[in-house]
Design brief:
single chain, alpha/beta, 10 helices
């Protein structure tokens, strides 16, 4: 992936919404970036983070605050900014290496970052450890405990215990309510 290859030092991200389905697709990319020592910073509006209990697991550096314009800034040398509405009524992304535009984007991000508060101060749930996160994702995909146990190569009893811990972590009434919370429907 060209964007991953070009990012060596930092990736700054601010978005107005948080879609678990999209963000979990890039979770492995984020893990590889962390393994390379890439500094990650993410800003979301409070309402977007509150709607996704997995936000702190997917974005551990998360801060909360108003987002004036969605963007990604890579190594303060490349920016992906919100472009005009496309033919389907959705904003198009605009990538640039123009140093003036990237400089303005980086300055806007840093100002937003400084004004935002860390997720811990906002009272969000702490990140799940890796295995529980994986189980939570499988719950979202509709896997049974038996299916999760087979996928992870562990016992059904262990998976049931982990699912119960996830339900408790969420403060959910039951498994179905937990899944609804994980997908942002509750």
């Amino acid at each position: 992936m060209w964007f991953e290859d070009r990012t060596r030092q930092s990736i700054w991200n601010m978005q107005r919404s948080f879609q678990v389905s999209l963000n979990r697709q890039v979770f492995e990319l984020d893990e590889r970036a962390r393994d390379k020592g890439v500094e990650e910073r993410s800003v979301l509006p409070r309402h977007a983070a509150l709607g996704s209990p997995l936000a702190t697991t997917i974005e551990p550096s998360l801060r909360l605050g108003p987002v004036p314009i969605p963007m990604l800034v890579s190594d303060v040398s490349y920016a992906i900014l919100q472009g005009p509405l496309g033919p389907h009524g959705l904003n198009t992304p605009y990538g640039t290496e123009d140093p003036d535009l990237v400089g303005l984007a980086a300055a806007a991000f840093l100002e937003t970052w400084e004004a935002a508060i860390p997720w811990q101060e906002a009272g969000l749930r702490p990140p799940l450890e890796a295995r529980r996160f994986r189980i939570a994702v499988m719950l979202m995909d509709g896997h049974t405990d038996r299916g999760i146990a087979a996928e992870l190569g562990t016992s059904l009893r262990t998976v049931s215990s982990e699912v119960r811990a996830i339900v408790d972590w969420l403060g959910a009434r039951n498994r179905g309510h937990a899944v609804a919370m994980l997908v942002g429907a509750a």
